[in-house]
Amino acid sequence: CLTQRFFLSLFSGAGYHSESKAKEYKHVCKRACQRAVDQLKAGALAVEAVAAALVELEDSPFTNAGMGSNLNLSGEIECDASIMDGKSLHYGAVGSISGIKNPVLVANRLLSEAQKGKLSAGRIPPCFLVGRGAHDWAVSHGIPPCLSEKMATKFSLSAYKRNKRKMELAEKMDTGHNQTKKRRQSSENENGSGCLDTVGAVVVDLEGNVAAAVSSGGLAMKHSGRVGQAAHYGCGCWAENACNMNPYSTAVSTSGCGEHLIRTMLARECSAAMQSEDAHQALLEAMQNKFISSPFLASEDRVLGGVIVLRCCRCVEAPPSQNIQGILVEFLWSHTTESMCVGYMSAQDSKAKTHISRLPPGTVPGQSLAIEGGVCRLMSVVE
């Protein structure tokens, strides 16, 4: 058997994280890391561990996912989530789902059900469900419903009332065509100051399989039925084991303004970039060329988003022994938002490490980026 080796990285959102709440953001990241590690130590695969991490993040009132999510224009909570398994390349997602405490569990169940093969009469199983259909499918598959009013917190309700007053005031001040653009920019600024907290995680398990997942309550005051990047294929998350064409296994999760991330398919773009030799340079160029300077976002004043990236391969410098196996893991994060809270942990760590990454002083959110990361070698002995 193999001694345990695994690594995971996660984030509680790209947006704005105040110093006064820094401890809470870091604490929830530590709890999520520990929950996933406990699963991995018990023999869980990457896709199961990444879902466990997101359940912990969804249950926190400090994140914009699951409990305490942003409310939409109608004062309701509608969530998006997706998950991808790098081994099977299967994907599951839900969009604009209400009345479910942990949307990632529905996405994960869609993934696992699809892996079972075709339904009766040769029907193709769904991988992406939205709205009432997603809710009913979840309940029929044993996932308990949760009253929507119980998912709102004091913080999310007060934020909704505050944003609603601002919108009403802005509409009263709207006296002409020129004011429309100003109102839109004002709304974007509000959304950019702490309401973009999609949560996500990436994992490599003891067998070297990777997985990624994301979950989000979406933009504050969004239109009912709006689906963000957290549910879209190739936009919210991506995971792909190494194969003949790709020397590296990669897992990516994104956070930020969903419309920007959808139009650039940032998760898949970053995954493809990670096949280059220099991971740091590849991510820097992907964020700059495929996101900030993307022709698909040329009309945007500020391009808001963040990513965590994990890539791994067999260690070529491992000791020349048939009893020793190693995986080299590189983990990076980058963001154009004011800040991004991340956590990470490996099999060798007794506790998770957390960090709130911030843009360099004097830089403009949406027009510049921060990038950080590290390297971890996971060695194991074949007994």
Give the arrangement of secondary structure elements.
Elements: E1 7-15, H1 22-41, H2 46-58, E2 79-85, E3 91-97, H3 103-114, E4 128-130, H4 131-140, H5 148-151, H6 154-173, H7 177-191, E5 199-204, E6 210-216, E7 237-240, E8 249-256, H8 258-264, H9 266-273, H10 279-292, E9 305-314, E10 324-335, E11 339-346, E12 353-358, E13 370-381
Parallel strand pairs: 3-4
Antiparallel strand pairs: 1-5, 1-11, 2-3, 2-6, 5-6, 7-8, 8-9, 9-10, 10-13, 11-12
Helix pairs in contact: 1-2, 2-3, 6-7, 9-10
N- to C-terminal separation?
Answer: 5 Å
CATH architectural grouping of the domain at 8-66 and 80-91 and 196-381:
4-Layer Sandwich
The CATH superfamily of the domain at 8-66 and 80-91 and 196-381 is identified as: (Glycosyl)asparaginase
Rg of Cα set: 20 Å
Fraction of residues in β-strands: 25-35%
Q: Helicity level, as a percent range?
A: 25-40%
Strand ordering within the main sheet: 4-3-2-6-5-1-11-12
The largest β sheet comes out as: 8 strands, mixed
CATH level-3 fold name of the domain at 8-66 and 80-91 and 196-381: Glutamine Phosphoribosylpyrophosphate, subunit 1, domain 1
Q: How many separate helices?
A: 10
Low-confidence stretches: 179-194
N-to-C series of helices and strands? EHHEEHEHHHHEEEEHHHEEEEE
Shape: globular
Number of strands: 13
Q: Regarding CATH, which class of the domain at 8-66 and 80-91 and 196-381?
A: Alpha Beta
What is the residue-mean pLDDT, rounded to a whole number?
89
